[in-house]
Amino acid sequence: MGEIYGTSFCNFGHDMTTGRPIDHECHILPPAMLRAERAGDIDRANDILHEEGAGPIVLGRARRAP
Fold it and tell me: 3-state SS of the chain: helix, strand, coil percent to 5?
């Protein structure tokens, strides 16, 4: 798993590599959208979300410590 980013989409963490939610039920988000939002490019993040759409809603499991 990659880094976790708390997105404004839901105010919870998503895996930056896969877009999967971490420890909450949510859409799988496009990783490019997460990267753009984290970089502060909100307009681009919104464009990516509208172009690619959000994936299915899944229950994200908590990440386990290594």
Answer: 30, 20, 50
What is the crossing angle of helices 31-38 and 42-52, to 10°? 170
Q: Which two tokens stand for residue 24?
A: 């909450």
Query: 2 is written with which tokens?
Result: 């990659």
Give pTM, 2 decimals.
0.86
> In angstroms, rounded to a whole number, what is the distance separating the alpha carbons of residues 66 and 55?
27
Instruction: Give the rounded distance of the alpha carbon of 23 from its chain centre.
Output: 12
Does 53 fall in a domain? Answer: yes
Token pair of 37 as six digits: 């939002």
Q: What is the pLDDT of residue 66?
A: 45
Distance of alpha carbon 56 from alpha carbon 51, whole angstroms = 15
64 found inside a domain = no
